Amino acid sequence: MEERLKREQEEKEHKKKEKAEAHLYTIIKVARDEDLAEQIGKDIYFDLVDHDKVKSFRIQKQMPFTVFKEEVAKEFGIPVQFQRFWLWAKRQNHAYRPNRPLTPVEEAQSVGQLREVSNKVHNAELRLFLEVELGADLRPVPPPEKTKDEILLFFKHYDPEKEELRYVGRLFVKANGKPGEILGKLKEMAGYAPEEEIELYEEIKFEPTVMCEHIDRKLTFRASQLEDGDIVCFQKAVPTEIAERYRYPNVPSFLGYVHNRQVVHFRSLERPKEDDFSLELSRLHTYDDVVERVARQLGLDDPSKIRLTSHNCYSQQPKPQPIKYRGVDHLSDM
Questions:
Q1: What pLDDT does 171 receive?
Q2: Looking at the structure, do residues 303 and 231 belong to the same domain, yes or no?
């Protein structure tokens, strides 16, 4: 008992000290390719990474950034000369992307100074993307010089048969080059045969609605307004007669589905505290769509005989008034 009290006391002291010294430290969150590969298609579908799930370092603000790089080398096994860090930036359309590499001048600063340069938004933390280039033997090599004419693009691959989106890597492309020049590389990334036809889309934003547009292969990357940190999604070209077999035959339809899907729990009015069943619906479903799905689940012939009532999550009871028949446009209004 005494041991436990002592331990709790020590813990309290430690937390108190941490709080008192918080202003001396910065949290640095470092995202890597491995994080993108792990999260995209599982935890997230849009943008590139959830920063709350990447490695974070608590670093004294006074520490020179060059010393921090040594910490990173210890943690990830990537020697300092093979590390290149990018700052993230929030765009006007709310997308959050790697924006530019740190300059040598910035790398010569302290962690605290760098945090002030980097963001006005996430005041307490510095978010970075660690770029590591691998040679033919999969060992790190020094990052290639980045010129103004080069753009860093990130690639996601979509499989309409499996309804699966995954991160397959990133490439530097020439701003004045055309998509045709990288098709071979993309097919390799996805494990396709060289003769396979592929379609490219740019993932632009997802709030409040999804915007994902076809990329014209005849235009240069610059003419398509692609810039550092942009995301290109690609897939096999699906002939029209085969497309009908798939629920979401292309990237925009799949991203729209993911953005609007909603799992809804249904309870019988007599037993408002326990779930009867749940259905995956879309926020865009109409009143008729919703009751039709419920009828199918219950094995009823006439969906118009179903009455729905919204749930009060505070009292765990149904709301006093049921939803009027066709009284709302979409599931999101229910």
A1: 96
A2: no
228/283 same-domain check: no
Band the pLDDT of 6: cuts 50, 70, 90. confident
User: SS3 breakdown of the chain: % helix, strand, coil, rounded to 5?
Assistant: 30, 30, 40
Boundaries of domain holding 71: 23-131
User: Assign residue 138 a region: left if phi > 0, alpha if psi is -120 to 50, beta otherwise?
Assistant: left
Mean pLDDT on 62-71? 96
The domain tally of the chain equals 3
Residue 73 structure tokens: 């080398």
Give the Cα separation of 216 and 253 in Å (integer): 18
Q: Whole-prediction pTM value?
A: 0.85
> With left for phi above 0 and alpha for psi between -120 and 50, is residue 77 left, alpha or beta?
left
Give the CATH number of the domain where residue 103 resides.
3.10.20.90
d(Cα 57, Cα 39) in Å, to the nearest integer? 20
Note whether residue 11 is domain-resident.
no
Among 237, 224, 317, residue whose Cα is nearest residue 269: 317
Average pLDDT (255-276) is: 90
Within-domain flag for 5: no
Non-local CB neighbours of 83 within 8 Å, separated by 6+ positions: 69, 72, 73, 130, 131, 132, 143
Cβ-count burial of 292 within 10 angstroms (0-12 exposed, 13-18 middle, 19+ buried)? Answer: middle
Q: Characterize 206-217 residue by residue with b for buried, 16 or more Cβ atoms within 10 angstroms of its Cβ, and e for exposed.
A: beeebebeebee
Task: Choose one of 76, 98, 131: the last residue of a domain.
Answer: 131
Question: Are 225 and 173 within one domain?
Answer: yes
Does residue 13 form part of some domain? no
Pull the structure tokens for residue 179: 């998509």
Q: Give the Cβ contact number of residue 24 at 10 Å.
A: 11
Strand partners, 207: none
> Do 155 and 253 sit in the same domain of this protein?
yes
